[in-house]
Amino acid sequence: MDETALDQETMGRLVKPVSFILGADHPTTKALTNAAERGFSQDLKQAQIAFNRMKSADRNTVLDMLDDD
């Protein structure tokens, strides 16, 4: 599995595209939102795990959406 390392700023940028693909109430979206807003190490870790558990096609789509910004 291709794991992408993310920092807090990047997690904040991922919230919108992940929300678009998975929905605002999806646990991955919520984890990324918490990590971006609070920045606690546990929140960052949970968001990283949740993002890496996404289907690779969805993850690649999200990262492509970031490149379009």
Summarize the structure.
The protein is an all-alpha fold and 69 residues long. The protein has one domain (8-68). It is built from four helices and no strands.
Describe what you observe in this structure.
This protein has helices spanning 8-22, 27-38, 41-53, 56-68. With 69 residues, it is mainly α. Helix 1 runs antiparallel to helix 2 (27-38), helix 1 packs across helix 4 (56-68) and helix 2 runs antiparallel to helix 3. It is globular.
List its salient traits.
single chain; 69 residues; mainly alpha; 4 helices; 0% strand; globular
Oligomer status: single chain
Q: Extract low-pLDDT stretches.
A: none
Main beta sheet strand tally, sense and closure: none
CA(first)-CA(last) distance = 26 Å
Structural class: mainly alpha
What is the total tally of β strands?
0
Query: Can you tell me the number of structural domains?
Result: 1
Q: Level of helix content? A: over 70%
Computed over alpha carbons, the radius of gyration is 11 Å
Determine the strand fraction and express it as a percent band: under 5%
Mind sketching the topology for me?
Elements: H1 8-22, H2 27-38, H3 41-53, H4 56-68
Helix pairs in contact: 1-2, 1-4, 2-3
